[in-house]
Amino acid sequence: MGKTADLTTVQKMTIDTLKKEGKTQKVIAKEVGCSQSSVSKHINREAKGRKRCGRKECTSKRDKRALERIVKQNRLKNVGEIHKEWTVAGVSASRSTTHRRMQDMGFSCRIPRVKPLLNKRQRQKRLAWAQDKKDWTAAEWSKVMFSDESKFCISFGNQGPRVWRKTGEAQNPRCLKSSVKFPQSVMVWGAMSSTAVGPLCFLRSRVNAAVYQEVLEHFMLPAADQLYGGDDFIFQHDLAPAHSAKSTSTWFKDHGIPLLDWPANSPDLNPIENLWGIVKRKMRDARPNNAEELKATIKATWALITPEECNRLVDSMPRRIAAAIQAKGAATKY
Questions:
Q1: What angle do CA 39, 45, 46 make, to 5 degrees?
Q2: Contact predicate 274/305, CB 8 Å
Q3: Is the distance from CB of 177 to CB of 158 less than 8 angstroms?
Q4: Do 263 and 122 meet the contact criterion of CB atoms below 8 Å apart?
Q5: What is the dihedral of CA 246, 252, 253, 256, to 10 degrees?
Q6: Hey, which residues does 202 pair with through a beta bridge?
Q7: What is the CA radius of gyration of the chain?
Q8: With contact defined as beta carbons under 8 Å apart, do 196 and 176 qualify?
Q9: Model confidence over 247-289: pLDDT tens digits?
Q10: CB distance 330 to 123 below 8 Å
Q11: Cα separation, 308 vs 194, whole angstroms
Q12: 55 three-class SS
């Protein structure tokens, strides 16, 4: 007996004709020479005006519009809060139905991007800075050494990996995630050019002007030799108090190192911020047990940064500036 997919055009036409004559599926199958299930499937496929299978949706278009308004009013609410507000509006639906309707609308739960909060004066200065640098070429940006500090924690917050488990396995040691109230962390200073990264400096204390100048002396200068050799370069850092202190400005003047003017509160314009993100993503599966193991993991991951990654990030500067101009000085997606 042939399957539905094996039925020939002639067999299908014969089934349709016999069906119109009022023959039973058993008789049709015998005359055509196929199984009764094949006849049944073919007839069902050809049937027109069939009602939709499954339960009827319990929510109307009006209900869905109300749900979309609730979601857009506060995008930081969880599904439980949205479901409660939707049912208060008079909709009878389960929490899972609420979640499905949100997914049908195209909403997905994601970690929100972080953007700096800028006041009007800062936006104006960012816009003026971007307009001043809009004609810089990739070759000019390749002469800039970008620098920044970043904090690394042993625990990377509550957005870590998920776990697959069955009912009753919640307390299984293999299904638990370790947590501490005050996770150990380290602060790291680093620098990069369009070709490579410089040596890292692990900061042991609060960074004031004196500490920062020691970092410059023992880590930035060697990084400059490593990245630029004897060629000229421009140093970039943000406007942190230790960076903008008078004694720090004097240090740069004494060493003959030009500084790139930099707008306040603008991490989105600094490609090394993206580099820190790359390092932290690569460390996502690491499980250091203490600060020393964390430092070793950071060093090993930093050493894996390729020249291509550095070049791609620095080459993004014209796009970052164009985005800042288009946003009229507001924070951008970078």
A1: 90
A2: no
A3: no
A4: yes
A5: 180
A6: 188
A7: 32
A8: no
A9: 999 999 999 999 999 999 999 999 999 999 999 999 988 888 8
A10: yes
A11: 8
A12: coil
Report residue 191: phi and psi, to 5°.
Answer: -140, 155
Model pTM? 0.65
Instruction: Take residue 85 and report the two structure tokens written for it.
Output: 């507000």
Q: Does an H or E element contain 149, and which? A: strand 144-153
Residue 6: DSSP 8-state: G
Q: Which amino acid, residue 94?
A: S
CA-CA-CA-CA dihedral for 255, 259, 264, 266, to nearest 10: -120
Q: Which two tokens stand for residue 24?
A: 């039973």
Confidence of residue 185 (pLDDT cuts 50, 70, 90): confident
Take residue 256 and report the two structure tokens written for it. Answer: 């003959």
User: DSSP secondary structure string, 60-82?
Assistant: -HHHHHHHHHHHHH-TT--HHHH
Q: Closest Cα to residue 63, out of 88, 36, 86, 40? A: 86
Contact 224, 145 (CB under 8 A): yes
Nearest CA-CA partner of 142 in 243, 266, 271: 271
Q: What is the dihedral of CA 296, 301, 305, 310, to 10 degrees?
A: -90
- Is 79 in contact with 71 (CB distance < 8 Å)? no
Report yes or no: 185 and 153 within 8 Å, Cβ to Cβ.
yes
8 A C-beta contact, residue 207 and residue 187:
yes
For the stretch 110-162, pLDDT in tens is: 766 666 778 899 999 999 999 999 999 989 999 999 999 999 988 654 444 54
**Lookup: tokens for 55:** 């339960």
284/151 Cα distance (integer angstroms) = 15
Place of tokens 């911020």: 273
Q: What 3 state SS string does 186-201 have?
A: EEEEEEECCCCECCCE
Confidence of residue 165 (pLDDT cuts 50, 70, 90): low
Look at the alpha carbons of 176, 180, 186, 187 in this order and tell me if their dihedral is positive or negative. positive
